[in-house]
Design brief:
243 residues, mainly alpha, 11 helices, globular
């Protein structure tokens, strides 16, 4: 099964990957709050917050181009809402909305790219997120891999029987067959999920995933928290007064 790009990123030997997920999540929240509460985004503010995100990219050894391109996934949604703001006459606020959305997405992507999803979800629970929502997100993340694996197996089976992309365009009956294949995919995925659930119950699952180790905040984690909070507050207050 192919791993998603973010899982490949958080296996890199970067300094940020070694830090505790709770420390990274606290700094991310501080960054988002500082960015959201800026009265007005000046060019200096964009440079300041962009520099903080770039520092995260560098400390995690993440591909800068990959982060920049994937953060652009929020632009269609941001542009849609910005168009409504622009039509109301607030052209400056429309541009602010797009820039804030992009910088926020980049920061979230940096943290997710440097943190395995299970650790990030445990950090969310530690910060007070509802346990039920955390568990739902955890299982959704894991079962997406189950669904992806079943889809890949069915795709290989179809290709081994001579199906190609051109065949879809040549025959309408193949489109109907694709609908049936989709139903089979979900049926197989559900059966696989039920088997996994029974295996978890047999191993003592009681509504909460057990932690294999009790992680403690190390010196580097406290350094990240202190430096992150100070930098976010410094950029926020300094640029706000400068503006």
């Amino acid at each position: 099964m192919h791993h998603v790009v973010l899982d490949e990123w958080n296996r890199r030997p970067g300094w940020l990957q070694k830090r505790d997920a709770r420390a990274k999540l606290v700094v991310l929240l501080a960054y988002l709050v500082a960015l959201a509460t800026m009265p007005r985004l000046t060019p200096q503010a964009v440079i300041g917050f962009g520099a903080l995100a770039s520092a995260g990219v560098a400390s995690g050894r993440l591909p800068a181009l990959g982060v920049a391109l994937r953060a652009g996934a929020v632009l269609p949604f941001a542009l849609f809402f910005a168009a409504g703001v622009w039509l109301s006459g607030a052209t400056g606020k429309a541009a602010d909305l797009v820039v804030r959305s992009y910088l926020s997405a980049a920061a979230v992507l940096v943290v997710m790219g440097a943190t395995p999803m299970p650790g990030l979800l445990r950090a969310m629970e530690w910060l007070g997120a509802p346990r039920f929502l955390v568990q739902v997100a955890h299982f959704l993340y894991r079962y997406l891999f189950v669904l992806s694996e079943q889809a890949q197996h069915m795709r290989l089976a179809a290709l081994s029987r001579g199906l190609d992309r051109g065949g879809f365009r040549r025959s309408r009956s193949l489109w109907r067959a694709a609908g049936g294949a989709l139903a089979v995919l979900f049926a197989r995925s559900q059966a696989r999920a039920e088997a996994i659930h029974r295996a978890m119950l047999a191993r003592g699952y009681a509504g909460r995933l057990a932690e294999l180790r009790n992680e403690r905040m190390e010196a580097g984690d406290w350094v990240l928290v202190a430096a992150g909070l100070l930098l976010c507050a410094g950029v926020r207050t300094g640029l706000a007064y400068a503006g």
